[in-house]
Design goal:
This protein has 12 helices and 13 strands. It starts with 5 loop residues before the first helix and ends in a 17-residue tail after the last strand. The strands form 3 sheets. Strands 2-1-3-4-5-11 form a 6-stranded parallel β-sheet, with helices on both faces. A 4-stranded parallel β-sheet has the order 7-6-8-9, sandwiched between helices. A 3-stranded antiparallel β-sheet has the order 10-12-13, with helices on one face.
Length: 374
């Protein structure tokens, strides 16, 4: 019988994988009720977190690491939520973790996860780098100087991007076609639905993915001959609660109301739909709403969310493949892969309940994959 895994505990407790990790690594950052639910599930399953990597002096630990800020959304993890079962509540970070874990297992590696905002990125790297053979890190969450030092000793793969820091050009890198996806999505709102007053609710300014998506939003305006916005209409966090606040700000700020709002991710867009429903604003009749990521939750809300689906599990799988290849040949040329995205048309933009998706083309090592629209 196989030993229980973090996925088993997360499933039984009704929380995300990142939440289980926080319970063991930073218990005070988790609400007491949630923490007890996770620990009770672990006791019932006989789950024990692995400590084999801690303090090892061996050169090869057979462990890979993942370092990223914890973007867990308490609203999405609410056990009383009407949004469905655990699999449908998987968020961006959970999907990347799942992809990395499965690929690591295929290659005979374990995965060590460090996910916390409370302790800061420096402590994340310090916690992981000394105990793994290589690790993946989300772009701009760790100072460039620190990554430079670590990458002299360990293979490092950067997730998201673009990879803009020249000193990091020697690192392997995987991202998705954020610009292309947002360009196709915004072009759809303008060309197919005739919407011209569009707002963009973006993530914090240190998010490279958010910046690339906003550039795609700008490019669609330029292409259509519309005034090009200089900056997002709202900058906020990436949770459902922040999405509620963002759309409330857009509606209460005065002036002309937008015809559509493009959110930097699906979690924000889901929160916005809740706020709009409370206000009696009809979607998409009064205001179209679109997101980005393609999390399963977007299918369950009413109306179903139009979005750009990115291959989140594939990001994790690709990161592991790059790390394993680098461990086998430290002198190989750096690889930068851009994974394709797909435009998913659903009811929140006015496309009808049956929706429709368009598969992107393969990314490979070259940049600029296209987005095929349905």
């Amino acid at each position: 019988m196989n030993a229980p895994t973090v996925y088993d505990v997360a499933g039984q407790a009704g929380v995300s994988i990142a939440t289980v990790s926080r319970v063991y690594r930073a218990p005070d950052s988790v609400r007491a009720g949630t923490r007890e639910r996770v620990l009770e599930a672990a006791r019932e399953l006989g789950y024990v977190p692995s400590g084999n990597a801690r303090g090892l002096a061996s050169r090869n630990t057979r462990v890979l690491g993942l370092c990223f800020p914890d973007y867990a959304d308490p609203d999405a993890e609410d056990p009383d939520s009407d949004y469905g079962d655990d699999a449908e509540l998987m968020l961006y970070s959970d999907e990347i973790i799942r992809g990395m874990e499965r690929a690591a297992r295929r290659h005979g590696y374990a995965l060590l996860i460090a996910a916390s905002l409370a302790e800061g990125p420096r402590s994340l790297v310090a916690d992981v780098a000394g105990r793994v053979d290589g690790f993946a890190v989300l772009a701009r969450t760790v100072p460039t100087e620190e990554l430079e030092v670590i990458s002299r000793r360990l293979p490092v793969v950067m997730l998201a991007g673009p990879r803009e820091d020249a000193p990091l050009d020697h690192l392997d890198h995987v991202e998705v076609a954020n610009f292309d996806g947002e360009l196709a999505l915004t072009r759809h709102l303008i060309a197919d639905h005739g919407l011209v007053r569009l707002a963009f609710a973006g993530s914090a300014e240190d998010s490279p993915d958010g910046e690339a998506r906003f550039r795609g939003f700008q490019a669609a305006h330029l292409e259509a001959g519309l005034p090009v916005p200089e900056r997002p209409d709202v900058l906020s966090g990436l949770t459902q609660a922040e999405g509620e606040r963002a759309v409330a700000h857009l509606l209460d700020r005065g002036g002309e109301t937008p015809e559509a709002v493009a959110f930097a991710n699906d979690q924000m867009a889901v929160g916005a739909l809740s706020e709009l429903r409370r206000r009696g604003v009809r979607v998409p009749e009064d205001l179209a709403v679109v997101g980005f990521d393609g999390i399963p939750l977007g299918r369950l809300v009413t109306p179903a969310l139009t979005t750009v689906r990115q291959p989140m599990r594939k990001i994790g799988e690709t990161a592991v493949e790059l790390l394993v290849a680098r461990l086998g040949d430290r002198a190989r040329e750096p690889v930068s892969q851009v994974l394709p995205v797909s435009l998913i048309r659903r009811a929140s933009c006015g496309c009808g309940t049956d929706g429709g998706s368009a598969g992107g083309t393969s990314g490979g090592a070259s940049r600029g994959p296209s987005v095929t629209q349905s």
